[in-house]
Amino acid sequence: MTNEATTKLWSAMKLEMLVEFMEPNFEKKIRNRLLTIEQTGGYIGYVGKFRELNRIVQIDDRTTMSLVLNGLSEIELKREILRKKRNDLNSAIQEGFLEWELREKTSIAKKKMKTDPKVKVNVNTPSSQSNNSYPAARKSDNSGRGGGIAVKTAKNCGFCSRGPHQVEDSWFKHPEKRPKPSNLNKQMFVMLEIMVVADNQTHDGSEQN
Q: Nearest 10 degrees: CA dihedral of 76, 81, 82, 85?
């Protein structure tokens, strides 16, 4: 293991070697690249390249923070970092990482919804349910009409020739099965009975003719 003195010595040697073997105007070129850096790929690669250049020329934090934001090509990401109002470079970069990760997860989730047939959006909305039930309602309406025709063509009672009902349900053969009128609807049943008798007499007269 190396102690602190050895670490400092090795760092100083690397810096001297860099100064000794670097090309002329090397630092100036790096500085210009840092001042004009722009994001051309992902956010992670952009931040890594920025830190690498800044490690060589050592620009102050306020300037580097502005450079990082100006170089971002993603407007929404830049807007989110500015909205959080970070005061230093590290916190601004960290906020960018959080926003980038959130956007990546959202993008992956959307791709899975498009490619995975098991992941489907629920289409059972009230409007779709009403539209889907409309044909069924029409079918039931048609069947109801068909049922009405069947009732009209059904055989009448063999005892009173009225119907459709069975002989054992005929009021004329079994008066005890006739519903007993209450005080409130007594008049209605009386009128109904008069109409039934009149209709029956008409029916008997037509048969005699």
A: 160
- 110/157 same-domain check: no
Same domain for 32 and 106: yes
- 47 closest CA partner among 105, 94, 13: 94
pTM score of the predicted model: 0.39
Cα angle 205, 197, 181; round to 5: 170
* Helix and strand totals (H; E) in the chain: 8, 0
Shared-domain flag, residues 30 and 102: yes
Task: Say what percent of the chain tops pLDDT 90.
Answer: 0
> Are the CB atoms for 91 and 102 separated by under 8 Å?
no
CA atoms 43, 44, 49, 52: torsion sign = positive
Whether 134 is in a domain gets the answer: no
Confidence bin at 71 (pLDDT 50/70/90): confident
* End-to-end CA separation in angstroms for the chain: 130
Give the number of domains in the chain: 2
169 vs 31: CA distance, rounded Å: 106
Q: What length is written for the chain?
A: 209
Map tokens 């009225």 to a residue.
162
**141 domain residue, yes or no:** no
- For the residues of 8-31, what is the DSSP string, one character each? HHHHHHHHHHHHHHSPTTHHHHHH
Instruction: Write out the residue range of the structural domain in which residue 178 sits.
Output: 152-209
Distance, in Å, from the CA atom of 204 to the CA atom of 198, rounded to the nearest integer, reads 10
Using alpha carbons only, how large is the chain's radius of gyration in Å? 46
